[in-house]
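Lab manual, section 2.4: Encoding a predicted structure.

Procedure: take the sequence of the chain (193 residues), apply the prediction step described in section 2.3, and record the output as structure tokens. A sample record is shown.
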Amino acid sequence: MKTFLKVFTFVGCLLLIPGLANAQWSLNNGESTLSFVSVKAEHVAEVHTFDVMSGEIGADGGAEITVELASVNTLIPIRNERMQAMLFETNMFPRATIEADLDLGSLTAMAPGYSETMQLNFSLSLHGVSRSYSSEIKVTRLADGFVASTIKPIVVTAEDFSLQSGVEALREIAGLPSISRAVPVSFTVQFDR
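Recorded output:
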């Protein structure tokens, strides 16, 4: 079955629903998650999240999700602070942004409870750099919104966003032999009308 979309986001993560052309959809932060996995000392993997996101889909089909980088949550307060200051440099780069343009006219009816696998094309802006990504996501229609989730993690590298020196600074201050410069990123986002 052909996908209903040509282009749409993440992070994010967007479903085109009949009638969307005149509607605006907002990201439900409480029902959404964005996580990444870091690997240190070669074999120690840990899952981290960002706790504050916002986003919307406009009437023109433009979709944007904003991630507050200071909301990084590693479950260790001092590590949160170090990531904010040394890796993300939130004093200069407080947010990451995910954007996509949606073709609202390409959608046909999707009944509540129905799911579809779709191709997601989006841009991620982080640390003053923007990169394009493509990923398969699963989109499920809700009664008054939708949920979109990654099927496979999206691999983001420190080199793509000039974060190598931040990773090295974290490695040194923690006294670790290594920290991976590639991290798998996953998301589940819910948009409500």
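Check your result against the sample. Helices lie at 77-88, 164-174.
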